[in-house]
Amino acid sequence: MKTTKDIFSLHGKVIIITGGAGFLGLSYAEALGKMGAHVVVWDAKDEQGMRQAQQVLLKKKVKADVESVDITDEKSVRHAVRAIIKKYTKIDVLINNAAMNPAVGSADSASQFAPYEKYPIDLWEKELRVNLTGTMICTKSVATYMIKQRSGSIINIGSDVSVVAHDHRVYNDPSEKRFKSVAYSTTKSALLGFTRQWAARLGMYNVRINTFSPTGVQTPAQDKAFVKRYGDMTMFGRMATPQDYVGAIAFLSSDASEFMTGQNLVVDGGKTAW
Ligand SMILES: NC(=O)c1ccc[n+]([C@@H]2O[C@H](COP(=O)([O-])OP(=O)(O)OC[C@H]3O[C@@H](n4cnc5c(N)ncnc54)[C@H](O)[C@@H]3O)[C@@H](O)[C@H]2O)c1
């Protein structure tokens, strides 16, 4: 019989993280790699961005495969999945983490904070393509092998806005009018149905799929007033740190979550509980 320590072990597990060269993806890669997993990072950053991600992980003494994979390109995803099977013979965990999530106030974010009645439809479609269709492409490509293996865990990264709306007041000084992307919350909520639907398909093969829903993480780029307003929305009076999430990610990646599927694990400092 496995001990409790055994069921939390990630030793030798092959874990794909999409958007793994991003802010939270890198912290998951570091944490899971340090727990003994073979981490495979997929991202669509440019050459320099991919190289930087590799260097960050090397500095932290985490050996990971860092691959340039656009999750909206089904051919490229299938090719990358086959390469992992060839190298490791299995895939234990897929973390569907990639999404269009530009930081508030960044140049990229301007149009994603537009009033909804003026929201550009081509941007809406692009967000649906990355956040939902990309997740579908990765899930179907990996599920094929997990079904054969009769094991696996898929983790869809949602958000606190999978279960509540954004409170736009947090983004706005009185002089500004910013509204967090309508497509963002729409796609993050849709992931809950996507998760349940796939869970009902995969359960018979001993493959599980859950959503993990974190809240906003503090970064050095955010202004103080924003951090205070956001922090006040949680019961702990602060925004999250990347470290706040690695335990939940490790739990969902490990055998400790073996009997959990179709669910949404919310880690938001109580933001959606009051
Ligand atoms: N940071 C937060 O406060 C927060 C809060 C709640 C949920 N989330 C969720 O956590 C996840 C990670 O967020 P983050 O803050 O690290 O964002 P991030 O922008 O730093 O990382 C996202 C990564 O996805 C990659 N990506 C985008 N399109 C892609 C594509 N087509 N193919 C492959 N990769 C692609 C980007 O290059 C980027 O590296 C997202 O799903 C986000 O919605 C983040």
Topology at a glance:
Elements: H1 4-7, E1 14-18, H2 23-34, E2 38-43, H3 47-59, E3 64-68, H4 74-88, E4 93-96, H5 121-149, E5 152-157, H6 182-202, E6 207-214, H7 224-231, H8 243-253, E7 264-267
Parallel strand pairs: 1-2, 1-4, 2-3, 4-5, 5-6, 6-7
This protein binds nicotinamide-adenine-dinucleotide (NAD).
Flag low-confidence runs: none
Provide the β-strand percentage band. 5-15%
Biggest β-sheet, characterized?
7 strands, parallel
In CATH, the homologous superfamily goes by the name NAD(P)-binding Rossmann-like Domain
The CATH topology is Rossmann fold
CATH level 1 class label: Alpha Beta
Biggest sheet: strand arrangement: 3-2-1-4-5-6-7
| Count of helical stretches | 8
Task: Please tell me what the overall shape is.
Answer: globular
Query: Using DSSP, what is the number of strands?
Result: 7
Which structural category do the helix and sheet elements fall into?
Answer: alpha/beta
Radius of gyration: 18 Å
Could you tell me the mean pLDDT? Answer: 96
Order of helices and strands: HEHEHEHEHEHEHHE
Q: Between the first and last Cα atoms, what is the distance in angstroms?
A: 41 Å
Measured as a percent range, the helix fraction is 40-55%
